[in-house]
Structure formats: structure tokens, C-alpha cells
Known about the structure:
Number of strands of chain B: 16
Largest interface: A-B, 38 and 40 residues
Shape of chain A: elongated
Number of helices of chain B: 9
Strand content of chain B: 15-25%
Strand content of chain A: 15-25%
Radius of gyration of chain B: 48 Å
Structural class of chain B: alpha+beta
Oligomer: heterodimer
CATH class of the largest domain in chain A: Alpha Beta
Amino acid sequence: MAPMSQPASRPRVLIVDDDADIRAGLAEVFERAGFKAATAGDVAAMERALAASGADLIVLDLMMPGEDGLSACKRLSGRGGPPIIMLSALGDDADRIVGLEIGADDYLAKPCNPRELVARARAVLRRAQEGDAGSPADAVRFAGFRLDIARRELHDPDGVVIPLSAGEFRLLRAFVERHGRVLSREQLLDYAFDNDAEVFDRAVDVQVSRLRRKLERPGGAEIIRTVRGEGYLFVVKPSP
Amino acid sequence: MTREGLPIAAYLAMLVALALGAAFVAVFAIVIWLPPRPPDVMRADIVADQFEAGYTHARETGEVLRGDGMAWRLQREPPRSGHAPHMHATHMHLARQLALAPEQVRVDASRVARSDVLVFRVREMRSHMPGHQAEVIIDRRRRAPEAGEETPGEETRSQFEIRIPEPPPRVEATPPVPPAPPIPPTGPPMFAPAPPGVVLVAGFEIAAQLPDGRWLVMRQGRNWDELGWIASAATIIGAALAVLSVLALLFARRLTRPIRNFSDAVQAVGVDPQSEPVREEGPSELRGAARAVNTMQARLRALIADRTKTLAAVAHDMRTPLMRLRLAAENAPAEQRERMAKEIGEVEALVASFIAFARDDPAEEARVRLDLSALLQSIADDHTAGGRNVSFAETERTVVTGQSLGLRRLFANLVDNALKYGATARIALQRSDGVVLVDVEDDGPGIPAEERESVFEPFVRLNHGASGAGLGLAAARAIARAHGGDIVIIETPRGAKFRVTLPE
């Protein structure tokens, strides 16, 4: 928990929702988790708050009177604003994909576990701080493959969709975003697995070998290299 | 082509007119361009000379002549004698020449004409083939019959154009045939009266008894010129037919291509209402149909938009209070919080399944080529990561064409269903005969035979204590069918086994 004596380290989150109870409840949850929370009831208020004090992260409702969350998200991500987590009553995969494609950094469906929301917020902030992954591209290409971030799908060189499990997707995304660096099993566990899930180093190895099999093509180049005693290295350089 | 297009009837009328036109051109070409068909008419005196030569040859060698354009044969029985009054002179002449009694000579001819009344159009001389086959062509012009003579036979009604070879020198002729009138060797056809007394004969058979008692019979041989004529006529007809079939093919394509395009476009609209509108082209009937389909598609789109809006509003109105509750639960003591969260989760799952079922439009998502075994593996992995017992017997890469989210929901629903009634789910993938079979098996109590269809109906739950609205299997089957496949329940010793078939 971040104590009050370190205000500079408290990330500022702006919660945008048309429902007052949800605004208040989320603000409380974030404050309790060590964030500095501000709220806005609609997009216009959000713009005013951003102009007045800025924010490190926006939690944005999708359906609001006036301008809706999607168009606000599009505008914000278009001008390089803070990362956005969409919190929406539309929970379908299709809705999630639309949200991510439009520029949201993450997408959660209501009702969500508030602690999961906070965990995702931390993950998004960490990605943003790591620089190059600040605003995620819709898709990343490497070795003929294309990883569709929003759809969480891998397209192989023939254009065939290779579905990934949630773990494989997170693992591959971690690799792609940190290509050229040796990642230890602990790091991979941290990046690619839910914090609360009970996983062990062995699980990382299993997951990596699964992923390798999905990336395996006859005559294809090595993509994920094992570095003995250290971890794994994503060898190919991805391009947007 | 006008904007409105022609009706199909007009196309058909055009095609019929085209066919008639081609047939007419072919007939016209045969009648006008081809010389008239050469009849097998020969001069009787020359025929007699030829028989005489052949008879002499047969008498001396015992062999029949070959290769002179006649069909010779020897036989024991005398041939039937015909009645050909105009051939009487020829008959008597032959008997005299061969030194035989008249009854030892038989002359028969199916068509005989006295040529005095005919006009010959002389085209060319064929002196190198003395008198073998007079090339006679029917001419439409008629000359007034001379001396009121009418010759028997069908030729009386027409006239001949004949290329008369020079008559060979004759020893003796009865009746004597005067030399043919002077004929220019080439040049434009000219007309000349037939030499008087010439008898033209066709379809003849002449026979005479040899000294050994056998009969030598000479029949008129095959008229090769006629075959040539038939070949020319056949070429013209064939050419007309070829041209006509090419035209008909082009025509048919022109007529059917818009129909095919139309059916493809309508199919696309049926699969995806957001697809391109049907192009209005081709015959006017088709344009009308295309307009109707486009109107229908627009209405369908409006309906879908309405439904999407309604569902979004419903989702918002139901989930906002759930979210409030969930946030309120955060302030409750830990134990209560978990219980509340669980209840809220269950209500949310119900809401989600209603909305998913109501908005479920298997047509909406685009189809992609997808590795089905990787999909099944990822579903099993996701469950395994959540601590549930779902296994997938790994197979080689199996690519199907389908909706990525739709297929995921299909199999996820089946696995969820399996885990609702049993503790484990096993997924197996196999290919057979162009279809892909995916079996999802659980170790639950199984499904009674009489329930095996009704479980796929919406809101049907076997175990009323079970959570969920009973929409998962209905949605799964709808997705499978939208992919051209199906889901059935397979007999199995224990548990339930759902088999999904998908076209490869």
C-alpha cells in the first residue's frame, strides 16, 4: 500500500461513468488501492478534468448520455492521451474486440471484480511506463505471423487463425513487447499469469512449449530461444 | 443495354431469331452457293459402250472389271428384267453388239429421260473421263418443250445443266448419235440444246449372259461427285451449327451470368446482411428481383440495428445495478463479500447468456480459416488454468473455415455444459470424409434417450438445480448449423457425448 507520505508515487486515475454510485464505489476501491482517484459524470466533464489536472489512467464507461465512451476513447488515444481501461455493460467478445481495436488498453465487462480492475489498471500503467508498449499497436508482425492484440489471435503466414489460450496470448504478448531481452521464468510468471493463480516455473515451461508448437512451421526460423539457466529469449524482431 | 434491361422473353425471342437466321443462312448457302446436287445421270449410249467393254473383258478373262466406276458382278440367276421403254434401242443395240439374243441381255433403269426436251448448260469438258458420268445439274430455267414432247420420269419437270463429255468414237450407234454441239472448254456456262436422241439414264442395271451361262451384271456405281456435294452441304450445315452454338453459348452466358451473380449475391445477403447490395443487372425480371432483395436487406439491417440498440440498453440497465451491488459488496466482511460476489456472478452469467442468445446472429461475424485443433487446445488450456479438468487429445493441425468467436463460443458452451453435469470434459478431434468431428464427452449422469433432442431447445435444463438459463446448447447448435454442420448426441456407456460435425 502506498502511504500518504509519498503522494508523487500515487498514480492518478480518472473514473468516467454516468452512474454516481459506481463512480463513488470505484473511486473508493482505487483510493484504497493507493491510487489518487478523480471522477467525471460524462465525457465533457472528463475533458475538463483532464485539462485541469491530467491523469495517468482513465477508467471509461462505454454507454453514457452525450458522447459515448467509444468515440471519446478513439479521440483520446488518437491524440496520445493517457491509457484507457474500458468498463462496459457490453461484455461480449465482439464488444471487447471493438473496444480494444478502437484504442482502449484493456477492456472489462460490468460487473467486474473491483480488485481485478485494480490489477489490470496496474498492468496497463506498467506497460505504459515501459515506454515502447505505451500505446499498443492493433497488431504486431514477426516472422510472417501476425498477432492481433485486440482479438487475441495469431495469424500464421498462410493467413490461418491460430487461436491462443489466455495464457499463451499473454505470454506471447510479453515476449513480443520485450523482444531481444532474455526473460526469466519469474518475469514471465509476473507478466503472463494472473497474480492470484497458483503457477510454478514448470507451468511457464509447459506454456512456452505449447506456444512454440503453435509457432512451429516446417523450415521456419527459431522464434523463442531457450537460454540455459536464465530463461527465454524472443529472437525475431517484431514490426507493427 | 438499357438501364431497365430486356425481359427474358426478349432474350429468348432473340435467341430463336438467331437460330432461325443461322438455319436460313445455311439453307440459303446450300441452295445458292453450292451447285445443285448432281444426279446420277449418264448417257445411255455411253453406258452401253461401257458394258460392252466390260462384257468383252469378262468373256476373255472370266474376271469382272474393276475401277471403272461401275459395280460388276457375276451371278447364276438372270437378274430381274425391268420395263424401260426408252432403253429398248439400247437393249437391241447391245444384243447386236454382243452377238446375243435379246433375251440374253437385260436392261433395267429406274429413271430414263429423253434428252431432246432438255437444255444443257455446258460448264466444262471432261474429255479425260470419256463419258463415265455425265455431270448433270438441275437448272431452274425451263425451256418450252420442243415438239410437244413430254418425257417420262421426274426429270420432266426440271431441266438439266449438264457437263457433257465428248462422246467417244462409236463403231455403230442405234440410233446414231450426232456429235455434240461445239462446246468451249472453259468460260461462263452456256446453253446448248441436247444432242437429239440422247437418252439419259440413272439407277440402271445391265446384264448379259456369258458363254458359260452365268450372267454378268453391271450396276451404276457410287456417284462420287454426289458424295462431294453432300460433303460440301454438310460443311455448310456444320459451320452454321458451329457458329450458332458459339452464339448460343455466348447468349446463354450473357443471360445466366447475371442470374448466377444474383444467386451468389442473395446467398451472401442471407449469410451476412451487411454484405454489398445486389447489383441490378441483366434481364428486367432479374433487376426487379434484385431491387426487392436490396429493399429486404435494408429492412433487415434496420431491424438488426434496432435489436442491437435494444440489447445494449437492456445490458446497460441490468448490469449497472449489478456493478453497484458488486462495489457495495466490497465494503462487506470478507466472507459475505465472497458469497455476494458469487451470487452476482451467477446473475451476471444469466444476463450474459440471455443477451448472447438474443443478439446471437451467427451471420454477423466474418469467416476466417482457423486451426480448429489450436482452438480446442486453447479452450482446454483456459479451463485447466482455472483448475478444471478439461483435456484435449492433441491432433495435427486441422484448418476449417468459420467464425473465430462463434466457434470458440460453440465449443466453450459444450465444455461448460459438460462441466455443469460432470467433473471432467474430454475433447477429441477427428477427420473423416471431408468433415471434421469434434466429440465433447463428460462423466456426468448422461442424457436420457427421450431428452436428446429437447436439450437443444432454449431454456431446457435437465438438472433444475443447475445454474444457467439453458441456452448454451441451443446457441451452440445454432452456431454449428450456421457453419453448415450440426451437433448430435452420441450413445455412450456413461456420461454424455456431444458430437459436432463441421465441413472441412
